[in-house]
Amino acid sequence: MENATLNNGVKMPLLGFGTYLLQGGLACEQAVLNALNIGYRLIDTAAAYQNEESVGSAIKKSNVKREEIFVTTKFLPADIGYEKAKRAFETSLNKLGLDYIDLYLIHIPQGDVNSSWRAMEEFYREGKVRAIGVSNFHITQIQNLHKQHSVIPAVNQVETHPFSQKTEMQKALKSQGIQLESWAPFVQGKNNLFNNELLKVLSSKYHKSIAQVVLRWLIQREVVVIPKSENVKRMNENFNVFDYELSADDMETIKSLDKGSGLIYSV
C-alpha cells in the first residue's frame, strides 16, 4: 500500500474504504471485515453515519493488528464547540472501542469551529488522536483556522472526482502542508460517470474498469481516496489499482472533465 505522509510525519494510506451510507449493523460490520481481509488499511467513518460501533466491532474481529489500521472519524455539526466536541470525541472513541483514533475531523465548517479546534488540539497533545483535520472546508476557512491556532490541519476531506478536481485547492493545501482527501470519488454515480466516453477509452486502453481509472488518477495526483462498496468483487477491483500507471498525457486529458465545482456539496 502506498502512503501519504501527513504534516506531522504520520503515514496515511492513499487508498481506503469509506462507510458512508453503510448503516450500522451486521451488514456494515461484514463490509468492513471484507475490506480489511482484502487489504484495505484506512477505514473512514463518522458520527453522522451511525455505524461507528459496527466499524469498531469489525476491527476487533479482524486478524489485523490495530496499529496497522488507520481509522478516521468525524463529529456532527451539532457537536461544534469546545465542550460538545470533547464529549463527541469520547462518544466516538467508546463506540469504536478503541484507545485512540488516527484522524479526527470537523465534518462541516459550521458554528464555533475555533472552540472545537481547541478541543481537538488537546486530544492531539494527549495522544488520543494521531492527527486532526477538517472536512468540506474552503481554503479561506482553513487559513482562518490556521491563523488562530498552533496545530495546522493535517487533512481536508472534500468532494473530489473527475468533474470537481480541486486542482487549485490542492496546490493551496500543499503549500501549507495539508493533505487533500477525496470523498465521493465516483460522484455517487451522478453525471453518468460510468458511461463517460473519455473514461471509456482509457478503461479500454488500460484494461481496467472506469472505477479503477478514476482511483488511479486520484492516487497519481497524491490524493487520498476512500471508495465505498458492499460488493466484494467491486471492493477487490477498487483495491487493485497499484499494478499500472496512467500516462502523463492521459492524466492531462482527464483534466478536460473538470466542471470547476462540486456536484454534491459545494466547496
UniProtKB/TrEMBL annotation:
SUPFAM superfamilies: NAD(P)-linked oxidoreductase (SSF51430). Belongs to the aldo/keto reductase family. Residues 29-258 form the NADP-dependent oxidoreductase domain. Substrate binds at residue 107. PROSITE patterns: ALDOKETO_REDUCTASE_1, ALDOKETO_REDUCTASE_2. One of its GO terms (molecular function) is oxidoreductase activity, acting on the CH-OH group of donors, NAD or NADP as acceptor. InterPro entries: AKR (IPR020471), Aldo/ket_reductase_CS (IPR018170), NAD(P)_OxRdtase_dom_sf (IPR036812), NADP_OxRdtase_dom (IPR023210). The record marks 74 as: Lowers pKa of active site Tyr. This is Aldo/keto reductase. Keywords: NADP, Oxidoreductase. The active site is at 49 (proton donor). It comes from Chryseolinea soli.
